[in-house]
Amino acid sequence: MQNDTAAAGQSPDDGTNMLEGIRVLSFAHYLQGPSGVQILGDLGADVIKVEPPQGSFERHWAGANARRHGESVFFLCANRNKRSLALDLKHPEGAQVIRDLLSNMDVFVENFRPGVMDKLGFGYDAVKAINPRIVYVSCSGYGADGPYRDRPGQDMIIQSLSGLAAVTGSGDGPPAPVGAAVVDQHGAVLLAMGVLAALLRRAKSGSGCKVDVNLFNAALDLQIEAFTYFLNGAKMRPRSTASLSSWHSPAPYGVYPTADGYIGVSLNPVERMEAALECPELHAYAGKDPYEERDAISRLVETSLRKRPTAHWLQVFAKLGVWHAPVNDYPDLLDDPQIAHNGVFLDTSDANGNPIRLMAHPVRYDNRAPPVRRPPPRLGQHSVEILEQLGYGPDKIQALLAGGAVKAERRGAP
């Protein structure tokens, strides 16, 4: 479990709060935006998550209907190290609170559809007029403009549109989207990267910047290797029926069935596979181009692997230096020794002190991972605290609460 200092939202000098002093105003919802902003919060930025009075989308929806202690796990996964300000942005006094906050902010993040923030009075030009040094980040499905501007942007839809689904799966099956929100999460990392680059530029020039991140570009960037081959004349091949996992890789390269399961095999010389599999038929392909002969090689590898159980091949491949890995399911990873060594899973507490398990920040800084300085907040948990820091007095705060511009919980906050 985390220590009391981290649970209280304080910032111990542990060497990982490199963004301490950077203030982020986030209007992000769903996954890409919250996850990207969480990265900034992990690194020590003071993140204010602005939510509507009814709460952000993540609080009300959860994949697999997963809830922990009554809280959406979808919300928990990407909202640590933030403070919650529950506010009606359409209420004139609520909008004024945001304008008052803007002068002291470093970063502004939004992922509404293009044009929505302009209608609300908080587009880039309006925000820049209040704070010329602001780093303003817009996240969208396809970009700030262009023919797809108004289309809905969502991970699986973008996987389909970008070609990612079409190149994934077996040749005798349909296109297959990746079994995780890889586009959202790559977009989140690009969001954080863009903010850091813009902050560095501002430190040199004194000027803010408009940063645009979109899921379509993120999905294409995930395919940088394969797409660059294609753009430079490589002949694209259809998906293989011979356990090959990409159109551009030589054999063996993919997930292969064994007598009792599956095993991943990658980029091994034919001669090594011949010895490991005791498959003399592979000798005919020694010295030949493993890309041009990839289907034939892959089928021989598959036939050989089916003869023995996975445990046998893991032992043989480890001994002979064959690049391989078992095909793990999620339960297999709970006891994985490298995951334990890397500290990937983080046992911590929610805002009410209940135990939860999260994915830790993925980067290490001097061998340290950033801690949970603040658990994912309750709705409006920090509204009063933020207004007080803004200089609002008790009467003004009470008027905002009574008028419905701001919502705050009545319980004590950690």
Low-confidence runs of at least 5 consecutive residues? 1-10
Q: Give the termini distance in whole angstroms.
A: 15 Å
Helix percent band: 25-40%
Order the strands across the largest sheet as they lie in space.
8-7-6-1-2-5-14
| Strand residue content | 5-15%
Q: Identify the CATH architecture of the domain at 4-222 and 364-407.
A: 3-Layer(aba) Sandwich
Rough shape?
A: elongated
- Give me the secondary-structure category: alpha/beta
Instruction: Report the biggest beta sheet as strand number plus sense, adding barrel if it closes.
Output: 7 strands, mixed
Mean pLDDT across every amino acid position: 94
CATH homologous superfamily grouping of the domain at 4-222 and 364-407: Crotonobetainyl-coa:carnitine coa-transferase, domain 1
CATH fold assignment of the domain at 4-222 and 364-407: Rossmann fold
What's the tally of helices? 18
Radius of gyration: 25 Å
Strands, count? 14
CATH C-level name of the domain at 4-222 and 364-407: Alpha Beta
